[in-house]
Design goal:
Layout (H helix, E strand, L loop, with lengths): L4 E5 L2 E7 L11 E8 H6 L2 H15 L13 H22 L6 E8 L3 E10 L4 H13 L2 H15 L6 H10 L2 E10 L2 E11 L5
């Protein structure tokens, strides 16, 4: 599913951007889930890195000790996953808001890739700025946008500049999807889906 698709049911419209898949319809070799609290992540920042390092190492153990040429070895996969998950958990800690504090982590191990999905909740006022950032990330060359955002971030100390996403896209070839699901007038569920290839990037 590509950028700016909409899934509407019972007059509630979900917005989807980027590369998004319905993981319930795809057979997986393994699946895992964990629920956290956004306030606890924000109050105890180290829980972000602890959670990301744990799941990175746990998931990387599914990679064989000896892999075919062109496939990411276990140590390299663990490093990519740790960086990715730390970015996702920290974003949940920084940007969650509203009456729902749940953060749900999910992962699926497939033959050719590993898929992660993290869902948190934001206030409705935070949706439009995030969508603007997503559209900018998806519609621009990642290398050019990275340096533009790097300069702007250094000058203005922008909050939520998207540099983490850009680094993951341009250096690790990670494909992202984003879903916004209205839950109530005070809360919107935001799910970020990250697709990590098991092949080495060129």
């Amino acid at each position: 599913m590509n950028s700016d698709d909409r899934i509407c049911d019972d007059r509630i419209c979900d917005q989807v951007f980027g590369f998004w898949e319905d993981m319930s319809a795809i057979p997986a070799l393994g699946q895992h889930q964990m629920k956290l609290d956004a306030a606890q992540l924000a109050a105890h920042w180290r829980r972000c890195s602890l959670s990301s390092d744990f799941w990175a190492r746990y998931t990387a153990l599914f990679v064989p000790g000896i892999v075919p040429p062109g496939t990411l070895p276990r140590d390299a996969m663990e490093g990519v996953l740790s960086y990715l998950l730390n970015e996702l958990f920290e974003n949940c800690a920084k940007f969650s808001g509203g009456p729902v504090g749940d953060v749900v982590y999910q992962s699926w191990l497939l033959e050719d890739r590993i898929v992660f999905q993290i869902t948190n909740h934001i206030i409705p006022e935070g949706q439009a700025p995030f969508i603007d950032l997503i559209v900018e990330l998806l519609e621009n060359d990642p290398d050019e946008l990275y340096f533009r955002r790097l300069e702007a971030n250094a000058e203005d100390e922008l909050r939520g500049s998207g540099l983490g996403y850009l680094t993951l896209i341009k250096d690790y070839d990670i494909r992202f999807g984003f879903q916004f699901k209205p839950g109530s007038p005070e809360s919107i569920a935001v799910s970020v889906q990250a697709h990590v290839s098991r092949e080495e990037t060129l």
